[in-house]
Amino acid sequence: MRILLVDNDLRAATNLLQIMRNNGFTVDHTTSGREAVEILRHYDYDVAILELTLDDIEGYSVIREVRQARVNTPILVLTSLSRPQAKIKAFAVGADDYMTRPFDTAELIARLQAILRRSRGLSTAQVHIGPLQIDLNAKQAYVSGDAVHLTGKEYAILELLVLRRGSVLTKDAFLNHLYGGIDEPEMKIIDVFICKLRRKLQQKGAGNLITTVWGRGYILREDQTGRVERVMPSEPESLTA
Q1: What are the E-state strand segments in the chain?
Q2: Residue-averaged pLDDT of the chain
Q3: DSSP character string of 53-96
Q4: Rg (CA), the chain
Q5: Which residues are paired to 48 by β-bridges?
Q6: DSSP bridge pairs for 98
Q7: Digit-coded pLDDT (tens) for 199-231
Q8: Where are the beta strands (DSSP E) in 168-213?
Q9: How far apart (Å, rounded) are the C-alpha atoms in residues 241 and 223?
Q10: pTM score, two decimals?
Q11: How far from 128 is each of 133, 162, 191, 210, CA to CA, in Å?
Q12: Percent of the chain with pLDDT over 70
């Protein structure tokens, strides 16, 4: 899960960044509401965590402008404002959830996971595609019940493919998801990650679950028989070594 944290309290933000990263989330941080609006308009996040009392504009304005721009990224408000009127206004302008400080870490993680499930139309944390199962809470993949040992980036790629199955994802989308525009490697690294991920899934008996759409990217899509349609040839041998 990739998160944008919008908080002008550097001490609180540093603590929250550590919590999020310790729980396996990729997190970008900004202190500016204006910058947050532009980031959310141009980059893809699973969730935004937003403080209402920012220095440049109110958090309510951030939510309002993002929604007016037709950005559907779920927004969880995390603030010290606990009065009912603040919650009502936040929900009225388009917030998806609201928590007050001090907060319980386990509750925050649970709410983030629930937001992700709702935004993807999922009723549980378990996603099944043919023999493949993804546990979104545990961040673990299984094939026919057998655990697949993936690196953090391999899992992040697989999770993104699963949550957006049926859609072609470009290499830029993967880079953005994995690195958020910070110290991004060359685009060909995505081919390497995909190749290794395919090999691990195939070794567990999952078959070819990831299709290459040449000139565009990758897609995960299964047909009536549980096989992915339009499977293309494998990557060059230099990428599979």
Answers
A1: 2-6, 26-30, 47-50, 75-79, 97-100, 126-129, 132-135, 140-143, 146-148, 211-213, 217-219
A2: 86
A3: --SSS-HHHHHHHHHHTT----EEEEES--SHHHHHHHHHHT-S
A4: 19
A5: 4, 75
A6: 77
A7: 999 999 888 889 898 888 999 876 433 333 343
A8: 211-213
A9: 30
A10: 0.66
A11: 4, 9, 24, 15
A12: 89
* 37, amino acid identity: V
Contacts for 115 with CB less than 8 Å, ≥ 6 apart: 47, 74, 76, 96, 97
Which pair of structure tokens corresponds to residue 120? 């993807």
* Distance, CA of 27 to CA of 48 (rounded, Å): 9
β-bridge mates for residue 222, sequence order: 228
Burial of 144 (0-12, 13-18, 19+ CB in 10 A): exposed
**Mean pLDDT to the nearest integer, 131-148:** 90
Q: If you ran DSSP here, which 8-state letter would residue 218 be given?
A: E
